[in-house]
């Protein structure tokens, strides 16, 4: 799809549009020809405002345009497509991922494209926004445009698509009309075609025993007292006090931008905070110190695996050896290689060689590699932000079961997710975060619809 | 940048060499000389005789050290553009302590070089502090510190460091016993080049083969990941920055010890900036950067001879490195775009 939209060059083959071969030198050429790709990770200009970014994305925008006209476009598009786009004058790099993705989608829809390709557009949307987006897409399709939706959520496929193509590991497995198949059939094919899916998704019986909360462990693994992140650009979070015993898992469910990810980052030492954080009984400095967090036995899986999880330009074995590579004077490369091979195979990661660059792995394998590194030293506390975002079903299941395995061997885990289905699959107690406020602890079996309303702030 | 395939390296080198050749031929034609004669004069001036080779290596000493220093900083993600100023700080320290050091020449030389390296490292401290505490980009602060260093040299050779026995704006000369003697009679090259090349090798080992080097590279390649993974990001950056300054300071000290014997104004013809160009040409790989530095030194020595013999402007020595670096950066960027 990146090739069609002019982002990447094709190795072979040709792309036909309206029966004739086309090739766009770059994304701008494709956009002006009415073909738009909404990438999974937004490509907005961080230092520019929301209004300016949307003006860049709108092919109908005049060359000279007043600031006022650019600002009004924000409100117009937000209303037209039912998307919350943030303040017109806000700098995009200060906005949460979810808002940025919505800006990218609104910009794509703005020009009424003839061909619209969306790569996992709903990963960071709330249920209501997803519904609004699908209504907009349906309208575009009814108006004669072609809409291609790339998704790993079966519900979305069956929510109004005409045809589907199932791709697994670069090969087309099945193409048919949606009316001629069922979610069960496609789900079966999907799992069957992914070899790595030897581990099924967890069931409720996998839940770390709730009784552990009442066990006589004297020391909680993670304890927050009157805790709140101190981040100017994020939503203000109310003070939180909570504690997790060894082996306990808590899921924070929130739409991006409601403060859950900031809470996780502050615990991991990546943001300042006020109040008190103790990991394994050791208080962490409120100025934010990732080294102190890790020295106390903390592990962290960041939301952005490409920017924060791995060093893409280093090899797998180098990545897995960080932050403390073996060797006294010289690097012990043999030990690094052996450690990498052991970790990579233990986590079922597909790789060419331990010397392959981390950036060359697929998203799912990258995420598993991050977990392989973070869980290598049996951490007391694991903080994971959107650990399965954007992953295929099999990889997501593998990541979840790794986290549950770690909990079973005594790691306390705090998982942030924006996906109610995902939250339920962990089968652990939930708390919903809305505009910096944590809900009461909810049962794992709380219906997804209820969770969706809580997340959107409609209930609670 | 450090992991280029052989084919990519070849493409980059080919682009660079054709650009450099074009610049050379163009200049020769402008000067009304046959390009072949110009090339012959250039090659003979750079490596045609023992004296020519010695001249090239003598010029290379400071460039190798600044190029390696720049590579260390760049690989850790520190954009140290202040090697010129750190070079001057080292030269000032050498000129200040040199005449005072007593004892055996060997001990005096060691003391002088240690002072020079320390001065170079200290000259990065204001920039490192401003970056860490106030978020001032080191690109700006180090460029400004270059100007401060140049002005300080100008003031010192007319003030505190001026030779009390003379009227010229220059410092007291080092005792002849302390100065490094040429390796061969009739040439300017000294053992300093061996020190510089040994340090280039040391820097390569440090970066590629030690746990510390791996952490440094991780910090440079992905600062956000380094922080999240739990690497001492700020400390690693500072250490690389200071090491880079120490290399440049050492270059300044060796320049005084081996080449000039004293400090004067203006003291440098851009050793720090040329070192940055050599580091860029070498992809911030210390050995490749050192090789590039020797190449630039050869161009400098050769173009002086070429101007004398054929009348082709010696400005070639400054034009070609510039063209080379631009061609390399353009070729790399193009290849990176294709690969993405």
Walk me through the structure.
- The complex is a heterodimer of chains A (460) and B (340).
- Chain A is α/β, with parallel strands linked by helices and 460 residues long.
- Chain A has 2 domains: 15-150, 3-Layer(aba) Sandwich (Rossmann fold); 204-455, P-loop containing nucleotide triphosphate hydrolases (Rossmann fold, 3-Layer(aba) Sandwich).
- Chain A has 16 helices and 17 strands.
- In chain A, the strands form 5 sheets. Chain A has a 6-stranded mixed sheet with strand order 13-14-15-10-16-17, sandwiched between helices. Chain A has a 4-stranded antiparallel sheet with strand order 9-8-11-12.
- Chain A is globular, with a radius of gyration of 23 Å.
- Chain A starts with 14 loop residues before the first strand and ends in a 5-residue tail after the last helix.
- Chain B is mainly α and 340 residues long.
- Chain B contains 14 helices and no strands.
- Classes of the chains: A alpha/beta (460), B mainly alpha (340).
- The interface between A and B is medium-sized, with 32 and 23 residues.
């Amino acid at each position: 799809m990146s090739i069609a939209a002019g982002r990447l060059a094709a190795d072979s083959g040709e792309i036909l549009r309206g029966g004739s071969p086309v090739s766009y030198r770059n994304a701008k050429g494709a956009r002006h020809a009415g073909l738009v790709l909404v990438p999974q990770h937004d490509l907005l200009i961080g230092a520019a405002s929301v209004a300016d970014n949307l003006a860049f994305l709108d092919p109908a925008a005049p060359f000279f345009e007043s600031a006022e006209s650019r600002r009004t476009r924000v409100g117009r598009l937000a209303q037209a497509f039912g998307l919350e786009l943030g303040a017109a004058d806000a700098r995009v790099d200060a906005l949460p991922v979810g808002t940025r993705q919505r800006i990218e989608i609104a910009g794509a829809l703005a020009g009424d494209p003839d061909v619209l390709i969306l790569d996992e557009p709903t990963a960071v949307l709330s249920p209501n926004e997803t519904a609004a987006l699908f209504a907009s897409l349906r309208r575009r399709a009814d108006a004669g445009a072609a809409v291609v939706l790339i998704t790993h959520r079966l519900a979305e496929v069956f929510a109004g698509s005409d045809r589907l193509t199932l791709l697994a590991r670069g090969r087309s497995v099945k193409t048919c009309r949606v009316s001629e198949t069922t979610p069960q059939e496609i789900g079966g094919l999907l799992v069957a075609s992914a070899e790595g899916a030897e581990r099924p998704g967890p069931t409720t019986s996998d839940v770390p025993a709730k009784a552990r909360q009442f066990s006589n462990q004297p020391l909680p693994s993670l304890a927050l007292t009157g805790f709140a992140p101190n981040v100017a650009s994020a939503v203000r979070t109310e003070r939180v006090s909570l504690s997790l015993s060894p082996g306990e898992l808590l899921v924070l469910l929130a739409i991006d931008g409601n403060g859950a990810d900031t809470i996780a980052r502050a615990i991991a030492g990546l943001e300042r905070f006020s109040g008190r954080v103790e990991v394994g009984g050791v208080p962490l400095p409120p100025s934010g110190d990732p080294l102190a967090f890790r020295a106390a036995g903390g592990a962290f899986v960041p939301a952005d695996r490409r920017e924060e999880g791995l060093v893409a330009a280093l090899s797998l074995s180098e990545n897995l050896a960080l932050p403390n590579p073996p060797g006294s004077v010289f690097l012990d490369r043999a030990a690094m290689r052996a450690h990498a091979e052991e970790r990579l195979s233990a986590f079922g990661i597909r790789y060419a060689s331990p010397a392959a660059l981390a950036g060359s792995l697929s998203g799912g394998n990258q995420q598993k590699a991050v977990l392989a590194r973070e869980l290598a030293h049996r951490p007391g506390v694991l903080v994971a932000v959107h650990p399965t975002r954007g992953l295929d079903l099999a990889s997501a299941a593998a990541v979840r079961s790794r986290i549950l395995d770690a909990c079973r061997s005594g790691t306390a885990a705090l998982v942030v997710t924006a996906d109610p289905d995902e939250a339920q699959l962990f089968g652990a107690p939930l708390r919903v975060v809305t505009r910096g406020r944590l809900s009461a602890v909810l049962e794992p079996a709380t219906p997804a619809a209820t969770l969706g309303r809580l997340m959107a702030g409609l209930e609670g | 940048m450090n992991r280029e395939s052989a084919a990519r390296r070849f493409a980059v080198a080919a682009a660079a060499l054709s650009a450099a050749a074009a610049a050379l031929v163009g200049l020769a034609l402008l000067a009304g000389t046959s390009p072949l004669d110009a090339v012959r004069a250039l090659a003979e001036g750079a490596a045609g005789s023992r004296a020519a080779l010695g001249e090239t290596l003598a010029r290379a000493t400071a460039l190798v050290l600044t190029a390696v220093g720049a590579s260390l900083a760049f690989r850790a993600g520190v954009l140290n553009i202040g090697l010129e100023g750190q070079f001057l700080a080292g030269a000032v320290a050498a000129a200040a302590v040199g005449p005072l050091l007593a004892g055996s020449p060997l001990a005096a030389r060691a003391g002088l070089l240690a002072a020079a390296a320390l001065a170079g490292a200290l000259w990065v401290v204001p920039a490192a502090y401003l970056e860490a505490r106030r978020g001032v980009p080191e690109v700006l602060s180090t460029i400004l510190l270059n100007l401060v260093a140049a002005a300080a040299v100008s003031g010192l050779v007319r003030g505190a460091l001026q030779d009390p026995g003379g009227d010229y704006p220059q410092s007291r000369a080092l005792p002849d016993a302390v100065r490094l003697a040429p390796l061969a009679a009739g040439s300017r090259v000294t053992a300093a080049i061996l020190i510089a090349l040994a340090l280039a090798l040391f820097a390569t080992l440090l970066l590629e083969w030690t746990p510390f080097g791996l952490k440094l590279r991780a910090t440079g390649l992905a600062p956000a990941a380094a922080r999240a993974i739990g690497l001492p990001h700020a400390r690693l950056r500072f250490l690389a920055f200071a090491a880079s300054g120490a290399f440049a300071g050492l270059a300044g000290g060796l320049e005084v010890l081996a080449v000039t014997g004293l400090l004067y104004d203006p003291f440098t013809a851009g050793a720090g900036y040329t070192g940055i160009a050599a580091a860029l040409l070498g992809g911030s790989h210390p050995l490749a950067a050192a090789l590039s530095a020797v190449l630039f030194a050869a161009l400098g020595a050769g173009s002086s001879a070429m101007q004398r013999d054929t009348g082709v402007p010696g400005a070639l020595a400054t034009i070609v490195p510039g063209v080379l670096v631009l061609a390399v950066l353009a070729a790399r960027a193009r290849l990176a775009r294709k690969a993405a």
